[in-house]
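request received
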Amino acid sequence: MATAEVERKRGQLAALSIAVVVVLVGVPLWWRTTETYRAWLPVNQINELAELQLQLSVDVEVVFSRGTLTPEQQKKVPFTRTQEEAQKVDDDTTLRYRYESKYRTANIMEEDALKQPTAAEADLSLHTLSASPCGSVVVYVIPETSVLLPQGVDVYIGHRRTAVLRMGAPMSVGKNHKQLLAHLEPRITQVVQVMSFSHTDITAALSDRVRLSPGSKESLADSMRSFKSSPGYEITFSLLNPDPKSHRLDWDIEGAVHSYIQPLLTKLAPLANFSIDSQILYYAMLGVNPRFDSSLEAYTLNADSLAHVINPVEARLGSNAASSNPVLNFLLYVPDAHHSPLYIHDHQKQPVASNAFHSPRWGGIMVYNVNDLYGRGETPLPVNININMEKVMGVFLAQLRLMLGVQSSPAPPGFLVEPCGGAGLADWELDRLMWSRTVENVATATTTITSLAQLLDQIGNIVINDNIASQVSSTVTSLQLAVAELEAGNLGFALQYSKEAILASERAFFDPSLLHLLYFPDDQKFAIYIPLFLPMCVPILLSLIKIASEARQRRKLKQSKKD
Amino acid sequence: MAARRCLGLWFFLITLCVVSTGADVLHTTPVTGTESSAAGTETVVAREQPEAPSDPGEHTAAEPTREGEQNDRTRGGEQTRGQPTREEEQEQEQEQEKTREGEELTREGEQTPAQPTREEEEEEEEQEQTRGEEELTREEEELTREEEELTKEEEELTAEEEEQTREEEELIREEEELTTEEEELTTEEEELTTEEEELTREEEEPTRKEEEEEQQTTAQQEEQTRRWEATELEEEHVHDAAVPPPAADPPSPPPSKDDFQEELVIRPLHSGDIYASFQFRTVWDADFMGDQKVSHYRLFPKSLGQVITKFSVRELHISFTQGYWRTMQWGQPYLPSPPGAELWVWFQDTVTDVDGTWKELTNVLSGIFCASLNFIDSTNTVQPSASFKPLGIGNVTDHSFLRYATLPREIVCTENLTPWKKLLPCGSKAGLSVLLKSEKLFHSTFHSQAVHVRPVCQDPQCRTTSMELRQTLNVVFDLHTSGQGKREWSLFKMFSRTLTEGCPLASSSKVYVDVTDNPQGEQFELSPATPLLTQAVVLGDRRTYSVYDLTQQASFGSSRSLNMLLRWKAADGEMLRPLLHSERYVAGYGLQAGEIHTLIYNHHPYRAFPVLLLSAVPWYLRLYIHTLTVSSKGKDNRPSYIHYQPSKDRERPHLLEMLLQLPPNSVTEVTVEFERALLKWTEYTPDPNHGFYVGSSVISALVPSVVAMDTNSTLDRPLFSSFFPCKEEASYFMRVYTEPLLVNLPTPDFSMPYNVICLTCTVVAVGYGSLYNLLTRTFQVDEPSPGLAKRIANVIRRFRGVPLL
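response:
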């Protein structure tokens, strides 16, 4: 009996220890070998980024020229003054604008510069005196009586980062400096909003992150016209010749690109890389048959039918096989002799002056009529035609500015904005673009990285290897740096870091290795495990139950003995 | 680990289901039909093979095997043949000396015969059956042919009547053509939709594709997704931009010249089939290899130009072929290509990471041509050391910049044709390319399309280089399937289109018809007749061609459309036997070992010449290189050069290149044994029992030519005769591709993993269970029950009342 009891004890112990081994060694081993690999991710920092607090700082230098300040005021005007404005966009996003104004009086050379006969010349000579850093604004305050600005114009904005502001009339003398500044401040803010950013720009740039309340249709169209921020763009000019039998077209695209498009792109170089190419497509037809309007003796394309024009052509445009950047298409369509001249009509049935139209985030099309170059039937076909690139590039350049988001929002009353010159882009316009692009990049990168983190929480089967983890970490660091640089007002660096962030985040998010084990239904896993686990676990469980029941019985026995 | 494998298994099975359904879709395409019919005809040819070398006169001609003996032997052979003039003798001696220096020669040259025939003998049983059937049908054919001959006499009587009816037919046909032109317009629209559908396969942004499809279906939807607006051009913008660009404007260089030529060669084949070969050539005086980026395209296609620029490609040759070229029946093609897809590229020497660039390039090309070139990886890429020299200018010898790969499995169809046509300046709208309609092109026995990009000389002095893009398309229409058994061909019958104009962008646009065998019109009749004749030296022979110049209005005649009619009079033409052809098959039985046999035929009666043989064999056939034997006429034929690169499992294939001297009028047999590897179960294709393809071997040779070759590259020659550069007069370069092989590998039963899982689990459970029981149960010795005898005794004792034991 005693030996039997010992044996029984031994059996129980063995069963228990097997159960313990299975639980302590087997289960963790199985778990470890079948779990999906997840490298370490900076989850906390990502969660911090989910609540974005952006602070944009602008350095504003206000220079008082002679005659605007009384000596007394001059003494009392503070050197610096900071103005802050906070805007809450939605629950997770807050914006703070910070204008750091520095006040000083003009030095002699600047005085001289301001004495130039016209504002444009003054602008140029002021620029040569001191180059202000990217993102900053210099406002020169000139006396009411100055003749630099024409009548009725209060503010002049030139090609550079300078503006000239006329002192309001009644305030010039006799007031103390506080009143003076209180008078100037809203106007300076207005100038800064034109030259660097306004709240609407920034919220539009945040559209990736923040769901905008549906505004007016017009503003929505405005915000959707330009391309999304991208590290590079491919610009393709295509000449469509539907009938090479009747005309042979020549365009000096190389020269035209060099003299019209390249200056703009050189200026935009900090924003993105651009590559330009061109092609000629023969027998490329428009998708719709233009209607003949006998009153005009011309063919017309309605605004409604423009939507169908491009589709058949687009199949032949071809995507750039060598890169994955977005493509901006600019098509020049030269209608054949039988469908010429061809005019585009707008919604009011009026001919469009430029005979061109554009499609948001796609590109533009211009119709170029050559029927007057045919002569009167005596010239043998095909006719050689040289295209006037000046006319064409004017249209394409304007469309390109729209597509790239160089907004020419109407200036407030009293503002004179110098039209852009040969470079096609003023410095402050570039700054404006950089502000909004930086914010856009930051918004997009944070959204991408937070949604990746959310996805990982929800779907357990996604593998994160070390490469992706390092991409995610570099995104987070770049984002933090970009936000910090924005706070410090270093626009150039901020843009640089934001570009890095967006690149790394896209690479991490779209890496194909994420999907390797994604589609793996759980029920199928169990179908595989059960033949192994069931026969193993049942004896263990049974003996555990038996041991437990025996233990309970023994306890009862003991209690009854005690009783 | 086991569990993870189980996971993987599930995944594999799912993909298996998906892929196999996909494959089903592919197999329903008409092309497969032509393929099978092609295989059928091949077997017929195989029957004829043994007869070929048994010509007694040629046997005595020569059988030199050793290089040293060649001179004497051949001379002896010549003596038996008759009285060769002394000049000829000298010439031959010189040439043979040249062949002795085979390496140098082959470095310059390469060559091109191709002989179809023996399909893999592994599928013997099925094939035997089909072969038998083929024979039956063949007999039937012969019967019908006899009947035809009988009826021919009757036909001659009714010929006059037919003449009249034919004129009527012509009229009707013209009307048809007019209507088809109208149809064309509608089909063009259809095409556009298909083109766009095909586009969706290309690497494009998915959203854009969705848009396209939506646009097709509902235009209004799309109006909402895309807003179209008139460009509001503020006057000042135009004005500013129009401000004359400052004096900094540099004198823009004169636009680089580009030139486009198109050409169609039609060669009536003695078998009654017809061979049509299109060539489109764009030459552009742009420097792709310089520092300046080329970005403004006119006639040259932009998509291809960008690829060449981005990946620093010096030369690119890509071909897609459906069907196999039957050399013994059809002669040599103008441009040879192996079945499936072939891609070989020379990179510029500025490329540092050639393998990485190659990988990217194949991916991009697979997007451009809608083909599965992305399956090219290191396991099927080789670097041939001698066989593929640059065809363009440039003296490159470092073959580390060369990559060569074939995909014998690739099925070519209309989705590959559409992007190929898009590269043409005239698209499919004008010129010869209007004939390229997929419904007819793919209803053919052989279809091959290719793109060749290479640098060529711009002028005779070769001071500057141009980029040449040649797009070629070769098609053979079968007498019976496309021709309804009548030996009568017309453009309309072949392509269901006629020609109405040349491409207006082309500087030359010509149609050639090979009339060499038909000097007096005794073989066939060609109408409309053309006064233009031209001669060209092609594949070592001087051929005569009738030329239709599409740039001349006169070519089209009064009907304004050109529909050549080619009507055979005699059915028994004799074709010159191609000098070089080859065949290849797998021998052996069972699933473990096997032997690859490559037979190379030299049909030249008295000349030996060297060939370069290249075979790339996948790693899962483990070649035993020590079993490599090369023999000609029963004697050992030692290759003068062997380059062998052993395979690495799952990394790279075997590469075997050797330089062989083919004795005159001989068969050279190269055999090598192999062992079949057992693959991992994820490495099997979705249809593993179909077998695994081994790409064609490539034979490059300098074949002695009958007439002096034209080495003057400056001369204006037809395109089809000017593809392979020719450096000496006495021989021409050609390339011959053997059949691809289909090899069965040991294939597991794919439901086996389940059984294995269940079995192992059961075994584990049983083993574990007994161990568990041993450990946990208590075993007690039972009182042994009394034995049987004792029990019986007890029963008896009880019965007797005696006390029990």
